[in-house]
Amino acid sequence: MEQLKTIMMKNLKIPFLAFALLTLGFQSCVQNQNDQKTSQHETRKVWSVDKANEWYKKWGWLRGSDFIPSTAINQLEMWQEATFDTATISRELGWAEGIGMNSMRVYLHHKAWQQDPKGFKNRVAKYLDIADSHKISTIFVIFDDCWNPNYKIGKQPEPKPGIHNSGWVRDPGDLYYQDPKLVDTLESYVKDILTTFRDDKRIVLWDLYNEPGNSGYDNKSLPLLKKVFTWGREVDPSQPLSAGVWKLALKELNRYQVENSDVTTYHNYGDPADHRKWLDSLRGVSKRPLICTEYMARSRNSLFSNIMPMLKSENIGAYNWGLVAGKTNTKYAWDTPLKDGSEPKLWFHDIFRPDGSPYRQDEIEVIKVATGANSR
């Protein structure tokens, strides 16, 4: 391993990132594990590199957004029966189709399933029907460590003016550490969803855990991360399992995520130079397909004009945060709230206004050139 580190440092010339990712202890034997079950009672192994790359070929270049309809403040408002807004979902996915996007990343929530498992699954199926009608595939996210720790079924809060994701909720959040019995509910939820949709060809992959360790949890999230991968392997869906690397300092979590993901996913909101370092480092330690499941923050110089073409040239899936500005308030930056709710001088995320007009027409043209929408 020490010899490998030395070679990689010299060849990549990027000690800043190579160091962090090389310490993942990513071994070639892990990459080449047989993905077949060896007995009826063993969970499947990580996909082989060859299987992962063969799988990726069928999708072509994946490009899209992290999607929630503009009328929903969080995952619960998106998926509860009373606020499941099929008209808005279809309209907004139509705008995505119009600029050549072909995939979306969408968050689920166990609480909406727990309230009404059959109805929740029916709504997920309906969403997939709508997305497919617009030629859009889907990555589903299972758990999430970001934003508000507590949540409840029923009417969701109104947005706090000018505050980014003021109503977004974690899953399972602090309740996981307060209620020991919750783990049984979570296992049932994960296995039910993955079993129900295990062979659905409209689903790209299962993103099992968004940003594990965020919100100050750090390695506290590792046991649940391990559990959700175990549950996923026990179901063994036809789609790959993954959890994206997002913070280099979380070395133990990163190691587990990379070693146990069938396909390598990651987040990067940095400028082109920073993003390139991530790509070079990831290419150095993984021969699996790469998919960027979050990027594009205008004030950080992560733009459609400078990141999207780079990802396309590398055949890396590209999912920016935010399609339509709405109740999530993600046009406001993480760290610069405007509590009077006034229009930010520069939108942080999102592409369209709620009426379908683009925030910036020049960005629309960049996207359409990259996706080939201009040539249709």
From TrEMBL:
- Supply one GO molecular-function term: hydrolase activity
Question: Boundaries of each Glycoside hydrolase family 2 catalytic domain copy?
Answer: 180-303
Keywords, A to Z, come to:
Hydrolase, Signal
| Pfam families linked | Glyco_hydro_2_C
Q: Where is the signal peptide?
A: 1-20
Q: Which InterPro entries match?
A: GH, Glyco_hydro_2_cat
Keyword check for Hydrolase, yes or no: yes
Q: What protein does this entry describe?
A: Glycoside hydrolase family 2 TIM barrel-domain containing protein
Organism lineage reads as: Bacteria, Pseudomonadati, Bacteroidota, Sphingobacteriia, Sphingobacteriales
